[in-house]
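Deviations from the work plan: none for this task. Representative record:
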Amino acid sequence: MLSSVSEVSAAEIVPQVSKDEYLRAFRWLLLARVLDEKLAALYRAGKIPGGGVYLGKGQEALSVSVGISLRTGDVYAPLIRDGAGRLAFGETVVEALRNCLGSVLGPMRGRDGNVHRGRPRDGYLPMISHLGAMISVVNGVLMAKRFKGQKGVVGATCLGEGGTSTGAFHEGLNQAGVERLPLVMVVANNQYAYSTPTSRQFACKSLADRAQGYGFTPHSVDGTNLAECLKVLGHAVALARTGNGPQLVVASLLRLCGHGEHDDASYIDPRLKESEIGRDCLELSEEHLLVNSWASKQELSQWRTAAQRAVEEAVALVQKEPSPDPYTENWCALQTGRFAEGGSK
Amino acid sequence: MLSSVSEVSAAEIVPQVSKDEYLRAFRWLLLARVLDEKLAALYRAGKIPGGGVYLGKGQEALSVSVGISLRTGDVYAPLIRDGAGRLAFGETVVEALRNCLGSVLGPMRGRDGNVHRGRPRDGYLPMISHLGAMISVVNGVLMAKRFKGQKGVVGATCLGEGGTSTGAFHEGLNQAGVERLPLVMVVANNQYAYSTPTSRQFACKSLADRAQGYGFTPHSVDGTNLAECLKVLGHAVALARTGNGPQLVVASLLRLCGHGEHDDASYIDPRLKESEIGRDCLELSEEHLLVNSWASKQELSQWRTAAQRAVEEAVALVQKEPSPDPYTENWCALQTGRFAEGGSK
Amino acid sequence: MSITYLEAIREAQARALAEDPRVFIYGQDVGDFGGAFKATKGLAKEFPGRVLDAPISEDAIVGAAVGAAIEGMRPIIEMQFADFSTPGFNQVINQAATLYWRTQVPCPITIRLPSGGTSGSGPFHSQCMEAIYAHYPGLIVMTPATVEDAYSMLLEAVAIDDPVIFCEHKYLYYHLKTDRLPTEAMPAGKARIARPGRDVTIVAYSAMVHEALAAAEELSTEGVEVEVVDLRTVKPLDTDTIIASVARTGRVLVVGEAFPWGGVTAEVVARIATEGFGLLDAPPQRLNAKDTPIPYHPNLWSAHRPTANSILAAVRNLLRL
Amino acid sequence: MSITYLEAIREAQARALAEDPRVFIYGQDVGDFGGAFKATKGLAKEFPGRVLDAPISEDAIVGAAVGAAIEGMRPIIEMQFADFSTPGFNQVINQAATLYWRTQVPCPITIRLPSGGTSGSGPFHSQCMEAIYAHYPGLIVMTPATVEDAYSMLLEAVAIDDPVIFCEHKYLYYHLKTDRLPTEAMPAGKARIARPGRDVTIVAYSAMVHEALAAAEELSTEGVEVEVVDLRTVKPLDTDTIIASVARTGRVLVVGEAFPWGGVTAEVVARIATEGFGLLDAPPQRLNAKDTPIPYHPNLWSAHRPTANSILAAVRNLLRL
Ligand SMILES: Cc1ncc(C[n+]2csc(CCOP(=O)(O)OP(=O)(O)O)c2C)c(N)n1
Ligand SMILES: Cc1ncc(C[n+]2csc(CCOP(=O)(O)OP(=O)(O)O)c2C)c(N)n1
Ligand SMILES: [Mg+2]
Ligand SMILES: [Mg+2]
């Protein structure tokens, strides 16, 4: 029933992806890739405090499609491979770098780092590491917006296929179903959770098979295809926005990097790399631009250079920024200062 | 695909329910009802230490069908409304009463009480209160049996529809799917979780819709109909036993008592009480026996009297048994006594 | 009029809902049914759409509360029993408790935990979890011992901009009564001298305050004047009031209903030892529950937790040291 | 040959698998990949079918371990980080820890928690959870500080018939090395004098033992001889060894890496105060991490946890008291 609703509304609500939209998405995708490449370089150069760098290579088409489908007033809780979506949702390169390099001017002021960043007051929620835990937080924001009478808002959040095995995932989806919230749950099935293949992670054919059990509308998408991602995410977001309840989008793709930059990912099945899902969404979208004559080779290379310049400038800026200072740091975890304990020394 | 496997094997493995089997199940069902009635009376008389009594009225046909379908070597983790299944699996009335009355001779020796009872070494697992938590424990027993090379065993566990909203339920089912364990998950959808109706608990049409997402074979059953319950549970257990992977049985029925005996259940929708699922499985099975001439009215009343006598004798016995004595109690939560701490006084 | 501890909790919630449109209540069976203990009785009707039944999903319940708080609401969460907060533990300590430190966005949620032992409730419906939550930075943990505190501290919990774990004691629900609800109150974070005395201090909280007071009454007939300090809030701890009492008496027994390893009694004794060492005339003493799960049978249960009797024995022993 | 703390953990598991067919390993990425930290490197190949990758389901992982233990197996569970044990918390404290008390059937499971801070790991990959688990009856909590202990205590953990929470410290994984694995060992439950001294006692455990030893070296050059007690097991606590050391020195500082409220330092100080009061020449002192989540940036992190320097300052202060 739900899915027939979705078929109907699909045609009505979502037009084909326009050249403009595609180009806009592509530019974010490209910028995210360039930023990731720089982060990897900084990591190799030992410039990332402490250490982890988690990249989104191969997942940018999906991620950017989420971020670009949202608008001011919406809620977004991205995960570790969502550099592209973050940029599209409104994060700046400087902000991202500040968090990764631990600048005191960054959104978490050095207290938290790398992918753990956001601006909760702007609907951009900073993930905690525990997988699945952000879903119900998005639900809560949406419930609050409903209390306040705000209409037409959407909440989107992302997770890898491994994260779907958490109890938090289940409770969050069930809650969204019961409350019939405008939640768009995006699952990036990149075939591995760290080293663990899907055969050790779940036993259904597609994770979209779980939608029905929660009263979600299911959507599947080829995560390597930017046009398809834009269409399906646009559709899912539009459905949620127009009162059609929660949506589950499951994308097939492959992580084209290590779990983190410390990981050579040698466990990835070479057959997957050579398969359709192993294709690089950046390369595919460049081809798409060229084939459709939406961009020339020269333009593509200019855009890349521009992105690189933007990233390099941001790095130069952020690297000059102060690190947090433990002596001036306010070591208090409470807003209500009078309840702080000195700590028992 | 899985469900077509199940259709095929169904016919092969499960014959119609025979008179003998039905009668055997009915006698447990009746005994369970009579025991519950006595427990309610003991509760009203203030004879239950501390206080809670949780009954299975209306759910005995389903419950007994689970217990009776299992055999020695199988694993069973019943829940609060499974008095009938417990008896069919091999618990005695005395054992049940000992636990409820806190006899020191009971399986938990007064340390735990009422429905929290079992004999783990006999494959009969004592529930903890946290809903959903027993599923993965059954999985673990089944994994251990597989390690040991034991074949043809089944693990069955029960939960109310409310319990399906726990993260533990999801993780447990997913785990059983990944390990392809011979687990039979029985969900008794009795329309309420304490006072909460299903509309506030989940958003799918039937909880059986969740089977596919875990690689389980789904089964639905009218929980008021003993013959159907015996057939479906027999079938599900047989499938699990013969290597067809985990099974999800969802039964529709109505709780015909309070959540506990303290609860008048006035929140239950009267229309549900008058509907098909509101019928009493005991009355229906008595009718079935009479209609099929499998038993006479006289026999039915003799059986009830016999059950009452058995229960009364057990109560008389157990009430004479000693309560636990705090002075001789071994206050040590560890098997390895040398690691006990005196407790900091 | 006579108001129980439980009714005070209901009244505080009614008032919070009435006075602040940002407040809502979310938890299992809290709606029309009014909660397993009836702490939200009638509120769903009085405040339509603001008292919501939740599925049996403690993780998602807490997560949603955090989300709602981010968006400016002030949710009150009812756990059906403190024991069932464990599946929500991760969201409490890693999501709610860290939010402000990480983002400077406050997280004003109140999590009500019906806590503590009652006869026959067994291992999974009797637990005290205050110490577990108090261990984590970013949480405030309240443990009211009186009807007045149940009322005023719950109102304060809802008003505070930080996550509050509100440990209300099930044993006190019906046992404690008062004539009228307070109009003004001591602030949270301050301990209270529940009974003044000069000979020995008992530091207690929640239900144990009443066991301590009963023991103090008994000792008073023997000429021993016990000062009872009611902590009220276990995080932050009001070390000043504790130390001041110890300064007066020189002897201290710290009583808690929780398990013996760690917990409030360890923290309080450690503070006294480090900060009030010179004031002690005898070693500080502790009394906790036994180091086993909480037993079902009333015989075992009453031996498992501290009572007026065991406190009496401990004080007598302390006076001999 | 040189063996790290991490390799010792791998070797202990290899030996447990080799010697006892009831042992198996279950956890995320522990199979062919050998675990996030490589603590199970090569074991899946060496012991086919006995080292199993788990889904990201900490609750079900622990639940399954309990079930397997009931059926006579001796599972070793690896949590990817201690911090991620929170979704499995309920099964640990309510299922595993209560099983024996409720049923007399033992629950021999070992849960390995890669614990503690390393630079840049931030709020969710740095936590110390020993105190949380130690609070609950029915659990044994080990916190090895040396390569030898990592090896022998893990073997003992697997052999013990009770659930063991094995807190291995990530900072020590690569930092600590030894020449050969021990053939005999002190039993778990006994503390160790890591360094004898007559002037002051530092009680520490896990990574903090090494910070304490470094501080002790420095103080030794000033003529102050510090005795360092390595707790090894935090539950049960070896109160006798602690008290005996305090009896020798009269002064004690207890150091822990965890959050300041409660925790091991509170319990140890409380035991010393209650049981060894008369032996103290000065108030016992504590040193913990700060009362905030664990910060990401190395500058903040190194100020957040106790270090040789802050221990040094605390001891100097203690000597003046
Ligand atoms: C509850 C929980 N358990 C374990 C981890 C450790 N962990 C971090 S990422 C990861 C793998 C995630 O895989 P997936 O969800 O598929 O996302 P991907 O990395 O493939 O994008 C694991 C196990 C965690 N973050 N949270
Ligand atoms: C994790 C958890 N949360 C809350 C509870 C409290 N509780 C006990 S029974 C119950 C309702 C159960 O409903 P359902 O699963 O439908 O079973 P039924 O009682 O209807 O048989 C609740 C909420 C619990 N036992 N466990
Ligand atoms: Mg993945
Ligand atoms: Mg139900």
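The domain at 9-339 of chain B is CATH 3.40.50.970 (Rossmann fold).
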